[in-house]
């Protein structure tokens, strides 16, 4: 077990964990931030997507020891001020069905828009290809990203 | 314990009499029974620091308090259909509540109070549209009476709107809350003569109503089963029998216990090779302070298994056996006329064999449940379950407790699709919590989920169709064979039940003079369950594929062909031809007949909306299919083409649906959008294979579901305006999409598709 200091949603947090503990379980079990979800543990579904220094990563496949000084943002910290344009668009399009994969979808889309504020349809599809939705909300996810990109 | 699944077991009238048409006395009883859970019955309750909040609750589903807060109970499970919104909104609409301020509370599993809570079979709306209207109307009636008394006016001249009673003639208005004291002395209105609003007067029903939880979901605040925590809890990850029926010979726990955070290793006993639908599999549980420690501890276990009778099971070999079976005479399930003679006089005979694989549910939230076995011998559960009552009974049975000592709280479900009807994972958590006297949350990994599901069964079918000299379809002989759901519980269940046969096979609606439908024996070597639309999946694939082929042989447009095969407008009951029961999804066939006119209406509508005749003239690759399931009529047109890399894409899907009175139109559309995506996975990407009794796939790399680039691009859902009794939409989008897609692929590639998922070579 080792001690780590993480910068989580702008706040320094101390945790004690084995070096190989995936960031996902640090977030969920040690920091009790439940908005980041477990779906596959193999970076295949995107439910656990968070940002490290603004880039989307699959937290299930990054050991805590590799995080270092990078700034971690989870869905709880996506928009401290209020609502991110994607969160507003998500409500406008009533995107979710069961809702479980949606925070990962939003985090992935937020990183996409940060890198590419006006993505084409093909760019959206390609950027979102790693995020699975079993309920099949893909059409509304795409529409919400397009709406948010215009705001 | 036999679960109640009306789509498999026929009409259930007992529940209905209790909840659908409660007598006044029963209604009062329901009200008072609820007092232990959430509500206070028909009289007052005072709460708040000074007892200043007074609450009025005329029945189990709603309450109004003196702060003008309207609380409505969602008693069915939310797994993505929107039911947690759509049932309460019926109560609110009938009541005249201010919908934006309504609070929704999730019910615990309690059949005596809420009636059936088994969220399955697309029947929440069908079963509870009327009771929800009545729940709201009862309160509304009492509020109108109270206002009439206060204002000394005729209550008939009053109405409710936005949480107030208004009297149009005098312009008076009053908040519900300000009538609470008067309600104390009101009689519960007679349920037989209770007046409901006219359909045209509804402000929510028939409209797009956003889901209640959308904001919480977008902010990561919505809590699912896997998110539940209790102080002092432990996390369990379980190594389960790799083959169904395998037994632990011995195991070494030392290495697991060396992992920091791992505290206990506990064996769970299984229930044999036909373990049933609500029992855990045999396994070794690793119990730890956190999930990662439990996962690592499990990996460090050494378990020696006696793999049992299923260790030599190969699904590919069983498929070949099943195909051979279809060549023989089977068990007769429906007969009309004499197909053998008809084939003798047929000018053309088509005979085709169809194969479909096992499928896993693969909900993105893998099964998880939190159980707390308390010092007083009671158990409290928090679980993402479709069927809290069965979870409660199953826990009570496994722990030998009275069900009254088990409380099941229902969380949001991260997908269900039938998987989370089965409470095996809930029982695991309860057993482990009792063993260690602490709260335990069981967490399945994705691999656990893919390896130990209750699978949609693989299937073989052979359809033989005879056309007379004029090209008319005169004989239809359908053989179907697949390991049945019943085989999960009993080695003797070798044929599909009447329920499974009635899912798109024996209810063949077309006007063909000679029909013979047969099933064959197949043994269950794994746990078979039900997946969104169940055996409609493979039956619709085969039947609508064959009809498309027949249309081609006859030189007919497939849409025109299907319309003509439906024949005269009429209501079918099948009864005289069925060799067993026809469950009709749990409904009386006279109340919900198979109405060919309604099917024609959706076919005509989808054909118009999709501009079908122009599409086929322009040589677009479009495919059509129509299929009724769960009492909802659906027709579907799918267009396919290739992208610049030669990959198949689905640019447009059109659905037309007649689900009776449309309740929440936005959620109807979302179910069809999602249904098309779900069906795309079944048609094009997913399959489970067994070798040596074990599932070969592990995770989303090998068990693939559709991703955004391959997903259908535009999905249009055209909803028939109907005054018929409302029916569900969770499952009906799935069956017709698959053959419509396959028929479109045939137009694109010139190759007929007889096997799912569609092989690369075909696309």
TrEMBL record, chain A:
Gene Ontology molecular functions: 2 iron, 2 sulfur cluster binding; metal ion binding; oxidoreductase activity
InterPro entries hit by this protein: 2Fe-2S-bd, 2Fe-2S-bd_dom_sf, 2Fe-2S_ferredoxin-like_sf, 2Fe-2S_ferredoxin-type, 2Fe2S_fd_BS, Beta-grasp_dom_sf, Diverse_Oxidoreductases
Matches recorded under PROSITE patterns: 2FE2S_FER_1 (PS00197), 2FE2S_FER_2 (PS51085)
SUPFAM superfamilies attached to this UniProt entry: 2Fe-2S ferredoxin-like, CO dehydrogenase ISP C-domain like
Keyword Iron-sulfur in record: yes
Keyword tags: 2Fe-2S, Iron, Iron-sulfur, Metal-binding, Oxidoreductase
UniProt cross-references to Pfam families, sorted A to Z: Fer2, Fer2_2
Every 2Fe-2S ferredoxin-type domain range: 2-78
PANTHER family the record matches: BLR6218 PROTEIN, OXIDOREDUCTASE WITH IRON-SULFUR SUBUNIT
Protein name: Isoquinoline 1-oxidoreductase, alpha subunit
Lineage start: Bacteria, Pseudomonadati, Bacteroidota, Cytophagia, Cytophagales
TrEMBL record, chain B:
Transmembrane segments: none
SMART domains named in the record: Ald_Xan_dh_C
Pfam families noted in UniProt: MoCoBD_1, MoCoBD_2
A GO term, aspect molecular function: oxidoreductase activity
Start and end residues of each Aldehyde oxidase/xanthine dehydrogenase a/b hammerhead domain: 219-309
Superkingdom of source: Bacteria
InterPro entries linked: Ald_Oxase/Xan_DH_a/b, AldOxase/xan_DH_MoCoBD1, AldOxase/xan_DH_MoCoBD2, AldOxase/xan_DH_Mopterin-bd_sf, N-heterocyclic_Hydroxylase, OxRdtase_Mopterin-bd_su_IorB
Protein name, per record: Isoquinoline 1-oxidoreductase, beta subunit
Organism: Cyclobacterium lianum
